[in-house]
Specification:
By secondary structure, this protein is of the alpha+beta class. The chain has a domain of 136 residues: Nuclear Transport Factor 2, Chain: A (Roll). The chain has five helices and seven strands; from the N terminus they run αββααααβββββ. Strands 3, 4, 5, 6 and 7 form a five-stranded antiparallel β-sheet that branches. A two-stranded antiparallel ribbon has the order 1-2. The radius of gyration is 39 Å and the shape is globular. 14% of the residues are buried.
């Protein structure tokens, strides 16, 4: 009986120890978990060159999706070739004069490249009653301008954002209805272009004299 009482005592003591352990464990789990501090927001980086960038998307569950290629959509990503193409197309439209052209028809022709506020800066007249204009009408002469691609230079304007300066030599030719050339010469033009609403638009235009 003494042995059984001792065993019973040890059993009771063991149960008390187990219950105490359970109470301590429950007490620990009942404490609210600390909320981890949110990571600092990443600083944005400016894209200096029009190079494709890799973006890793994160799903709602915190898993990383495969990286995807993104192209910069900033105006700087437009190449010098795009601005040069706009300048070349403009001079071809500007110097084209058909036998039945008027100032209004010339204005409509170049309006694609020029903001309305800048149209009045261009000389789109035809010389009024000058001998040259009378000869153009009488002999049905056509004037055309073609950009000399070997001499086109386009450079960014350092003090103006999204703006370039273009030097475009233009070969002018005047022909009769049968295609015979009456006159031919070259002009040096300088223009300034800004990237607006997804396209290059003319801001200023100057033309030099006959270069031969």
């Amino acid at each position: 009986m003494k042995l059984n009482a001792a065993r019973l005592g040890f059993a009771v003591a063991g149960i008390i120890v187990v219950i105490a352990g359970i109470v301590i464990a429950l007490g620990r789990h009942s404490k609210p978990n600390a909320v981890p501090a949110a990571p600092p927001a990443a600083h944005s980086q400016t894209i200096k060159r029009p190079q494709p960038t890799t973006t890793v998307a994160v799903s709602k569950h915190g898993k990383h999706n495969p990286p995807t290629q993104q192209r910069p959509i900033h105006p700087e990503s437009e190449t010098a070739k795009a601005a040069a193409k706009a300048a070349e197309s403009f001079v071809e439209a500007y110097y084209l004069i058909l036998p039945k052209d008027t100032a209004a028809s010339r204005r409509r022709r170049v309006a694609l490249f020029v903001p309305v506020r800048n149209l009045d800066q261009l000389d789109l007249s035809l010389g009024g009653g000058t001998a040259a204009n009378r000869a153009r009408i009488r002999e049905r002469l056509t004037q055309k301008g073609r950009a000399d691609l070997s001499g086109v230079i386009v450079k960014p304007v350092s003090d103006q954002k999204h703006t370039v300066a273009a030097a475009v030599p233009v070969i002018i030719s005047v022909t009769r209805p049968n295609g015979k050339t009456v006159n031919s010469f070259t002009l040096q033009t300088v223009s300034r272009w800004s990237y607006q609403h997804g396209q290059w638009l003319l801001e200023s235009f100057d033309e030099g004299g006959d270069t031969g």
